[in-house]
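Researcher: Let's do a round of design. I'm pasting the structure tokens now; please hold your answer until I've finished.
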């Protein structure tokens, strides 16, 4: 019996999901419990579907105990089983897996299995390289990828994905770049996007070969696919040539260039010293606020003349408060002096919280803003403001004019004593980089241990681990970072009641976003989201984080990204592409997901296998692209 027929037979009738099947439910329950021993038995089950589900369970658990069983599945007669096993192996990052993956690659004929095998080799090789581990095994992984000879569309896609993960881990073999670039023009749109992503992750010296880089930029200039151009735009930033600058200038000045292209080009322009400054100044007035703010950031890396500085001064007063803060930073970088008193008066007159926060943070550009930032951080009763003043105080320490009478380390400990988890995390991280002579080690130890004892777990585990990292750096009270204990069993009755194509409508202050939930791939995450929606948890929450050409993020009960529910969820990974409109759960490490979620602006393949995907946008991406920090989630309704 074919696997496709098995899949059909195992699906329950109607609109409900696969967890009405008792065996599939059992595997999912074992995965939630992280019961590897019982799951291992399913890897040899006679039913292919159950072997697949068990393999995917281990993709989330990442238990080295499963590696041998997964290796055995690479030789399974069912292609879908081999593909699932390869994906799970790639998630474990186990060094012993390179050899069996490489051997199977020589004999594999199934397209999905080929892609997953080569991608797994790239993940493991890149991961080992990033951690400076097993250089001989990394070399074996690189050779297996580079020597892969299948030159059709499947082969090129697999090679690009494997190269992406090697580059993501810092691998700098120019042979990979030469092969990727030579394949680029002849490939399908899907493959060109993946090749562009792999090229964009490269951090080596290939870009100094101006002739090769310029040849690629010529091809990029005729590229018609927006997402491919966006992914590859970094090449023009790292290639400091006149040809690269001309390409970027054309994108920046072209009225037809969309938001995504402009953001990518502006970022690249900040690194290419030959790009016209005036083209960036013109974009400070862009209708897209994200483009305007990115233009301000890029201009910080340029040398502006007096006429250009006057132009920015003139523009500043007519722009939003957030953009005024961005220009204040830019002008300071160009030698201007921030008027602290005038800026504080401006801050006090701003009513919108997140605009006020943006302007508060701008105080950090000058050491002269340290005293008032610290004083206001201590006295403020508004959590968002206090955190922003703390950020400004910390940043100000690195600038001229920081008051000599302020003991920075003691001030950080005083801020920690306020008991706010966001401020504590900021200060603990900063204490790690201070010189030993700057601290009273005993006082630091007492303060950090006291703060650690007051934290509520598991919801404040991120702050707890920031403190532990600092204690360990200072070699006082050393301890292991906290791994979240199992604390929130999945409500399987709720899961079984959720249709496999459950939709949800997110009503925002900018419009409506429709998403489809993936209960069969992420049952615990979807069940939590559904229950929170029914409870009205998300009503009135804000989008507290927006990174252009990356994500919008919301659902934090604090509004600053440090808040969560009183429980955490298990990470749930499945074979997905982190494409445009993917909806994922924010986390601070494995099994720490809670209530915060994000939506991607564009494909973000580096998130795959690291952040749970529990939904995708079905309509409303234009709304997603309009969201800025401070926009509201009015409510979320299931339908």
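Researcher: That's everything. Go ahead.
Model: Designed sequence:
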């Amino acid at each position: 019996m074919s696997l496709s027929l098995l899949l059909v037979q195992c699906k329950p009738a109607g609109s409900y999901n696969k967890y009405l099947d008792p065996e599939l439910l059992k595997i999912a329950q074992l995965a939630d419990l992280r019961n590897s021993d019982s799951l291992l038995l399913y890897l040899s089950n006679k039913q292919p579907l159950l072997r697949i589900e068990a393999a995917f369970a281990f993709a989330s658990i990442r238990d080295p105990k499963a590696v041998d069983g997964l290796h055995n599945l690479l030789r399974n007669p069912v292609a879908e089983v081999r593909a699932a096993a390869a994906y799970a192996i790639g998630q474990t990052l186990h060094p012993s897996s390179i050899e069996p993956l490489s051997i199977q690659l020589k004999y594999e004929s199934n397209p999905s299995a080929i892609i997953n095998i080569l991608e797994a080799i790239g993940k493991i090789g890149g991961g080992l390289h990033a951690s400076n581990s097993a250089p001989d095994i990394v070399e074996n992984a690189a050779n297996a990828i580079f020597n892969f000879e299948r030159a059709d569309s499947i082969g090129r896609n697999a090679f690009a994905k494997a190269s992406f993960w090697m580059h993501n881990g810092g691998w700098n073999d120019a042979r990979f770049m030469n092969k990727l670039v030579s394949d680029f023009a002849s490939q399908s749109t899907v493959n060109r996007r993946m090749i562009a992503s792999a090229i964009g992750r490269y951090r080596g010296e290939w870009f100094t070969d101006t002739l090769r880089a310029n040849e690629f930029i010529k091809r990029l200039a005729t590229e018609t696919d927006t997402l491919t151009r966006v992914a590859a735009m970094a090449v023009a930033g790292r290639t400091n040539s006149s040809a690269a600058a001309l390409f970027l200038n054309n994108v920046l000045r072209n009225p037809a260039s969309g938001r995504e292209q402009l953001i990518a080009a502006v970022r690249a322009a900040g690194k290419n010293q030959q790009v016209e400054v005036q083209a960036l100044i013109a974009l400070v007035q862009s209708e897209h606020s994200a483009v305007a703010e990115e233009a301000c950031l890029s201009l910080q890396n340029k040398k502006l003349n007096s006429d250009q500085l006057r132009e920015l001064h003139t523009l500043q007063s007519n722009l939003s408060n957030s953009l005024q803060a961005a220009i204040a930073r830019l002008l300071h970088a160009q030698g201007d002096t921030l008027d602290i008193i005038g800026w504080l008066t401006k801050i006090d007159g701003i009513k919108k919280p997140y605009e006020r926060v943006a302007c508060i943070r701008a105080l950090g550009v000058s050491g002269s803003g340290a005293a008032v930032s610290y004083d206001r951080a201590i006295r403020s009763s508004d959590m968002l403001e206090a955190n922003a003043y703390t950020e400004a105080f910390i940043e100000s320490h690195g600038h001229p004019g920081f008051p000599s009478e302020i003991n920075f380390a003691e001030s950080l400990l005083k801020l920690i004593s306020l008991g706010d988890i966001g401020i504590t995390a900021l200060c603990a991280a900063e204490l790690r980089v201070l010189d030993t002579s700057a601290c009273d080690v005993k006082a630091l130890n007492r303060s950090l241990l006291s703060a650690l004892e007051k934290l509520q777990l598991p919801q404040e585990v991120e702050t707890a681990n920031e403190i532990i990292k600092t204690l360990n750096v200072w070699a006082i009270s050393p301890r292991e970072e906290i791994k979240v204990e199992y604390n929130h069993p999945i409500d399987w009755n709720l899961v079984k009641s959720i249709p496999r194509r459950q939709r949800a409508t997110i009503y925002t202050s900018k419009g409506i976003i429709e998403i489809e939930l993936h209960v069969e791939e992420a049952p615990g995450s979807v069940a939590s989201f559904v229950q929170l929606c029914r409870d009205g948890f998300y009503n009135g929450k804000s989008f507290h984080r927006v990174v252009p050409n990356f994500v919008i993020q919301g659902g934090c009960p604090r509004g600053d990204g440090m808040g969560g529910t009183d429980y955490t969820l298990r990470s749930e990974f499945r074979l997905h592409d982190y494409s445009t409109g993917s909806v994922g759960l924010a986390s601070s490490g494995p099994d720490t997901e809670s209530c915060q979620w994000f939506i991607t602006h564009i494909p973000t393949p580096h998130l795959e296998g690291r952040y749970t995907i529990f939904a995708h946008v079905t309509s409303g991406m234009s709304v997603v692209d309009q969201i800025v920090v401070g926009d509201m989630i009015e409510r979320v309704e299931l339908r």
